[in-house]
Amino acid sequence: MHQSVLEPGLPPVPDFDAVAERYRAFERTLAGGSTVAAVETVREWDGLRRELETWSSLTNLRFTQDTRDPAARAARERVDEASAVIKGYDTAVKRRLTVSDARPSISAAIGRHAFDLWQNDLATYDPAIEADLVTEAKLRAEYTQLMAGIEVDFAGERLNLSGLQKFQSDPDRAVRHGAATAQWDAMGERAAELDALFDRLVRLRDGIARTLGFDGFIELGYARMRRMDYDRAAVERYRDGIRAHVVPIAFEIAERAAKRLGIADFSRWDEQFLGLNAPPRPRGDAPWIVHQTIDGFAEIDPRLGDFARMMNRGELLDLVARPGKAGGGYCTSFPTLGVPFVFSNFNGSSGDVEVLMHELGHAFQMYRSRALPSVDYLVPTMETAEVHAMSLEFLAWPLMERFFGDEADAYREQHLASRLVFLPYGVAVDHFQHLVYERPEATPAERHAMWKSVERRYLPWRSYGDLKRPGDGAFWQGQPHIYRSPFYYIDYTLALCCAMQVWVQAGDDPTGTFERYATLCARGGEAPFRTLVTDAGIVEPFDPAALPAIVAKARAALAL
Ligand code: ZN
What we know:
The protein is mainly α. Among the domains are: 124 residues, Butyryl-CoA Dehydrogenase, subunit A, domain 3, CATH 1.20.140; 231 residues, Neurolysin, domain 3, CATH 1.10.1370. The chain contains 24 helices and five strands. Strands 3-5-4 form a three-stranded mixed beta sheet, with helices on both faces. A two-stranded antiparallel sheet has the order 1-2. β1 and β2 form a beta hairpin. α11 runs parallel beside α24. The longest helix is centred in the first third of the chain and has 31 residues. The termini are far apart. The relative contact order is 0.11. The model has no long low-confidence stretch (mean pLDDT 95). Zinc ion binds next to α14 and α15.
């Protein structure tokens, strides 16, 4: 029996005069100095933030479910405008709370970490940068629109770049090469715009950082990601660790793949074929995949099975691609309802199973941690959130026979190999951004040279053959995070280093490993990254012992 948890359609827009009045009341009470009243105000403020969060995530969900609906588009624009205003209100409350005499009592009620997060947020915002933030948001949207507007004629179809993606794993090498050529020819036509747009973003971000009193954007970038227990030096050592321990095995994976495929000039367009066989297709449609998932999860742990059943019965899954739906996959949640939602675009490939396990990992965390006492703990920082998601991809390995039958090993090999090869790419993106923001005055040509230097360092197998644009150092222009979310990328690699340890542990002790995973999920973001993973029995990625241990296990699993 299915019963949708969500009301259909767009949620009602909050009364913003009333919202403004509530924020003014919070400020008055906090200025009054009563500890009891301050603790109560924090509780009410938290409740209001949960309401606003539910409204904005439900509005965003409805827009991505049908991007052609003008009402949904207008509602989403309303959310964007409101969030800038709400950020200002929240900043004022945070500023009062961090200097409040009631601080010990509030800490006792909701934990100390919230104060650390608020202190961090205060350093990243000042009314003096408001106009610059609006410009930054516009430039980010310009990148998205520019990329979304690129269309190519290929294989008899008019396609956008995401439509072209499916040809990356075409078994016919000539088709893959043709698709890559079409993509980079089309991006090459917009080369000057892509360079100019990035140049404006880099200079703007550098200016924002200096207005806020930072020496440059790198430090502000870290603060925006709410990183508070590791710094640039730790990240640099981690990248060196990837270079020393992971680049060699990634190189071997690429070499072996080339040999198996009988390709002398293994190129960018062959990189989807890292396993022994082509990635298998799931042996059923979306409802069948969901039912296999529910039954399989119940075998791993009853809590996980009940959770998946709840998601399905509550109609909290929108999985299959359809016209008008936005691309990609993501997980969101509605704090006042206490439920998450998974959105994806199934297309019949092995990626369907992978994305479902990944997003359900995010969802399981959001569900487990829904009752934490501060809205700031519901979604942790990104490197931690990705541990929840990527770990479930690995914890679900024993279920792969359900989806792929006798091709389950082919799925697992491809999954592991592609994750290992991703690690060097992930740190290359991170290293590049450090070089860029260290020298904001660099020319576009100098930035392309910077990318080529990190490619040589971390991706020694990478060849673009006759593709001129990426061969000249432009590959990074297809990576949206570099334009949209600076310094958000190393997070995936830090999380993967943790998730692969969960994979190793689950091989020896599935029950104990799942228990630690479930506890980690229930803690959401109530503590910083290193504390959370260490408490969960994971060696933190900055420990020099972490990478060699997982690489040794992967080497054995891949028979390298
Ligand atoms: Zn994720």
